[in-house]
């Protein structure tokens, strides 16, 4: 189903806390009955160690281009009316969102499948890197694809 005016696509890198509700509202449409949101948050433990915060670095120009291309590709593959793919950079405290992806589609099946593909491909394809900062004083870089 083609959407009048094409899909609404919201992508970006943010240094400030993510406005999840605002991002979701940006793609809410009357022709989309399914809207699936994934919010990836910084967790307090990793491999049995206490995490103080996460720190994200990006090759920003490249990551922005990759996020946009990814969102456009997924929107086309799943006939979406709206897509969000926004990631934090810099320090992210425990329980804060580090990434938000969302997919709005006419039906839930497409929205769920698209959201899954959006987060999986964001983590594996976009030039963003995560460092875990532990209470014990050791930092650890986590490779793309690991969350």
Strand content: 35-45%
The low-confidence parts are none
* CATH fold topology: Aldehyde Oxidoreductase, domain 3
CATH homologous superfamily classification = Molybdopterin biosynthesis MoaE subunit
Span between termini: 33 Å
The number of helical segments is: 3
Text of the CATH class = Alpha Beta
Number of DSSP E strands: 9
Number of domains: 1
Helix content, binned percent: 25-40%
Q: Could you say what the CATH architecture is? A: Alpha-Beta Complex
Account of the protein in words:
Strands 3, 4, 6, 8 and 9 form a 5-stranded antiparallel beta sheet that branches. Strands 1-5-7-2 form a 4-stranded mixed beta sheet, sandwiched between helices. The longest helix is centred in the middle third of the chain and has 18 residues, at 60-77. It has 147 residues and is of the alpha+beta class. The chain has helices at residues 20-27, 60-77, 108-125, and strands at 8-14, 34-41, 45-46, 49-58, 82-88, 90-93, 97-105, 128-134, 139-142. A hairpin with a 2-residue loop joins strand 3 (45-46) and strand 4. It has a single domain (8-139), classed as Alpha-Beta Complex (Aldehyde Oxidoreductase, domain 3).
């Amino acid at each position: 189903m083609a959407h009048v005016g094409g899909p609404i696509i919201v992508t970006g890198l943010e240094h400030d806390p993510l406005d999840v509700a605002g991002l979701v509202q940006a793609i809410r449409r009357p022709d989309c009955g399914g809207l699936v949101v994934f919010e990836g948050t910084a967790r307090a433990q990793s491999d049995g160690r206490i995490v103080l915060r996460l720190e994200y670095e990006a090759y920003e120009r490249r990551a922005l281009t990759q996020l946009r291309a990814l969102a456009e590709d997924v929107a086309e593959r799943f006939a979406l009316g709206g897509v969000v793919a926004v990631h934090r950079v810099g320090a992210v405290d425990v329980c804060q969102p580090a990434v938000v992806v969302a997919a709005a589609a006419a039906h839930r099946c497409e929205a769920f499948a698209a959201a899954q593909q959006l987060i999986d491909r964001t983590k594996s394809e976009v030039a963003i890197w995560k460092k875990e900062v532990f209470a014990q004083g050791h930092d650890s870089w986590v490779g793309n694809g690991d969350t």
